Amino acid sequence: MNAGAASLPFKDGASELLLRHCLALGAAGSERRSPRARLEEAVGPELARRLLSSITLSGHR
After folding, report:
1. Is 2 helix (H, G, I), strand (E, B) or coil?
2. Which of 26, 34, 48, 49 has the greatest number of CB atoms lying within 10 Å of its CB?
3. What digits encode the pLDDT tens for the residues 7-61?
């Protein structure tokens, strides 16, 4: 076993999920909805608003 790989902070399946998301970004496709619309669909509009607000506010601190 590679000692460097064993010390990675990823939970089970996290690296696979990240890889799938990265591959989806490069996938050729027809019209895609905006990232915001997809986030709202995934977590709901209220949580999406809170997440985006938190992300944008953290850069201004």
Report:
1. coil
2. 48
3. 556 567 777 887 888 777 766 555 778 888 889 999 999 999 999 888 887 655 5
What values do phi and psi take at 2, rounded to 5? -80, 120
Q: What separation in angstroms does the CA of 43 have from each of 3, 16, 61?
A: 36, 21, 26
The Cα–Cα gap between 36 and 58 comes to 18
Residue 8: partners with Cβ closer than 8 Å, 6 or more residues away: 15
CA 20 to chain CA centroid, nearest Å: 10
- What type of residue is 35? P
Instruction: Tokens 């669909």: give the residue.
Output: 41
